Amino acid sequence: MKFIYLNAADMAASITMDDAIQSNKEALLAYAENEADIPMRMTVPVDDYEGAALFMPGLMKPTDALGVKIVSVYENNPAMGLDAVPATMILLDAETGYLKGIMDGTTLTRIRTGALAGAATDLLAKKDAKTFLLIGTGGQAESQLEAILTVRSIEEVFVYSRNQDKRKDFAKKMQEKFSTVRITAVDDLERAVRAADIITAVTTTNHPVLEADWVQEGTHINGMGSYATDMQELPSDLYTKADLVYVDTYDAVAESGDFKTPMNQGTFGMDVLTGMLGKMIAEEKPGRENDEQITIFKSTGNAVFDVAVADEIYNAAIEKNIGTWIE
Ligand SMILES: NC(=O)c1ccc[n+]([C@@H]2O[C@H](COP(=O)([O-])OP(=O)(O)OC[C@H]3O[C@@H](n4cnc5c(N)ncnc54)[C@H](O)[C@@H]3O)[C@@H](O)[C@H]2O)c1
Asked: What is the pLDDT of residue 127?
């Protein structure tokens, strides 16, 4: 038996953001059409070391992408100079069940989460969007920016997060990397929201990061952050103001405070949702009809995106002769 090992640099060299976006569109469709088997996430507590390992398996049938992402949460790791949340992706050959690849799970999460917002933006944002506001400058932020720049001809990017120094540093670093657009850190969030054609929120906030009144006609918003019932990133009245509200999977409704809080308070019900984005790809649900509509994509992520993008990376690495084979 032999398998390929891909580190973060191998992965980045193998796949383009464009290809990752395309494979997420295929995954959105496969999930919505019941062409994916995604068992419940399994958590194994490791009490002796105050840690836990989370196992997220999945199979995407149309491409035979099969594997499991393992994300560990060890809060004492940083004191030892280690990552608090190390992650690994394991890919299997769907035909034989043999191990075929191991890759860095943290890099995979970044690529596939950026590409997921990129897919949604490509499907929902107005075609001539020129301005983009990124809220949150943490681990996920760079790939979120790259994805939006991939799907639209953006001219101006505004960057906002809680800490002024950090958002300035991030904007400077991104300006060096993406030199064809103007990237600036902003202090006035309301002004940036009012000026943005596309907004991505990718934060760990517990309370909404913007106000619905600030959001202008025609804006597309990606809510990538809140994944637990005590976290709310987008305000409830933005969901009722929006014309189209898509989710990656219905887990987003079950897990995120963006839906749970207003639904528990009776602010809105399931009818606020247009549906799963894959249903729009299948042409069973509507897309944007004009440049005045406000659209939202709310995501909490799913293993189907991990296996789909990991398999795409594996295939691209083999084609480009990248990575280390292990017998
Ligand atoms: N949807 C998905 O598939 C998916 C995948 C991976 C991560 N996530 C989620 O995305 C979120 C961000 O992940 P990360 O790794 O970048 O986190 P991180 O901790 O590295 O960064 C968090 C960022 O949020 C900003 N922030 C927090 N509260 C804020 C507020 N009130 N206003 C403005 N900015 C605020 C911080 O300043 C920081 O820049 C997390 O909640 C994570 O679980 C979602």
From this structure: 98
Angle at 117 between CA 304 and CA 282, to 5 degrees: 60
β-strands 65-74, 87-93 pairing: antiparallel
94 CA → ligand 1 middle, Å: 33
Q: What is the pLDDT of residue 252?
A: 87
Phi, psi of 258, rounded to the nearest 5 degrees: -55, -35
Ligand 1 atom 42: residue of nearest CA: 225
Pocket residues: Cβ below 6 A from ligand 1: 109, 113, 135-141, 161-163, 202-205, 209, 224-225, 227, 299-301
pTM exceeds 0.85: yes
- 35, 216, 246, 254, 272 from 267: Cα distances, Å: 34, 22, 18, 16, 10
Q: What is the DSSP string of 168-193?
A: HHHHHHHHHHSTTSEEEE-S-HHHHH
Q: Which of 211-242 are b and which e, b meaning 16 or more Cβ less than 10 Å from the residue's Cβ?
A: ebebbeebbbbbbbbbbeeebbbbbbbbbeeb
Whether residue 54 contacts residue 74, with contact meaning beta carbons closer than 8 Å, is answered with no
Structural domains of the chain, ranges and CATH numbers in brackets: 3-108+304-326 (3.30.1780.10), 124-302 (3.40.50.720)
pLDDT, tens digit (0-9, with 9 covering 90-100), for 257-271:
999 999 999 999 999
CB count within 10 Å of CB 142 equals 18
